[in-house]
Design brief:
With about 130 residues, the protein is mainly alpha-helical. The protein folds into two domains: about 70 residues, no CATH class; about 60 residues. About 70% of the residues lie in helices and about 0% in strands. It is built from five helices and no strands. Helix 1 packs across helix 2 and helix 1 crosses helix 3. The longest helix has 29 residues. This is CidA/LrgA family protein. It is a multi-pass membrane protein. It comes from Staphylococcus americanisciuri. Its main location: membrane. Keywords: Cell membrane, Cytolysis, Membrane, Transmembrane, Transmembrane helix.
Length: about 130
C-alpha cells in the first residue's frame, strides 16, 4: 500500500469518527433518549442515503474497520479470563447470556457486512441497485 492509500484510509476513518462524534454531541444537546453512537449511526445512514456523503468517500476506511472489528472483542475475553476463579453459578448464567448476545451481534454484523460488500444494500423493491 502506498502512503497516499494509508492517508486516504486515515481520512475516511476520521470522517466516520467525526460523524459519530457529531451524533454524540446532538444527543447531548437535544437530550435524545438514545445512545450518542446510535444517533451518529442514524445520521451517517441519512447522509449516505441523501448522498451528502458518498460511499466512495468512506469505503476503504469502513472496509478496514470491518476487517479489524474482531480485535475489539479480544480485551473483554482477556478480562474474563483474569477473574475466572472468582466466578460462581450466578455469574456463569450471566456470562452465558453475554456470550449468546455477543454471538448474535457478531452474526448480525457479519451478515450486514457481507451484504454491504456484495453491493446489495439500500436496494428498493427488487431493483438491484449497487453502491
Amino acid at each position: 500500500m502506498t502512503v497516499m492509500k494509508y492517508l486516504n484510509v486515515i481520512w475516511q476513518i476520521s470522517l466516520i469518527y467525526g460523524i459519530t462524534r457529531l451524533g454524540s454531541w446532538l444527543q447531548t444537546f437535544f437530550h435524545i433518549p438514545l445512545a450518542g453512537s446510535i444517533v451518529g449511526l442514524v445520521l451517517f445512514y441519512t447522509l449516505l442515503q441523501l448522498k451528502i456523503v458518498r460511499v466512495t468517500w468512506v469505503k476503504d476506511g469502513a472496509s478496514f474497520l470491518l476487517a479489524t472489528m474482531v480485535f475489539f472483542f479480544v480485551p473483554s475475553v482477556i478480562g474474563v479470563m483474569d477473574v475466572i476463579t472468582e466466578i460462581d453459578m450466578n455469574f456463569v448464567v450471566f456470562f452465558a447470556l453475554v456470550v449468546i448476545g455477543t454471538l448474535l451481534v457478531a452474526l448480525t454484523s457479519g451478515i450486514v457486512a457481507e451484504k454491504m460488500t456484495m453491493g446489495k444494500v439500500f436496494s428498493k423493491e427488487g431493483s438491484n441497485r449497487h453502491i
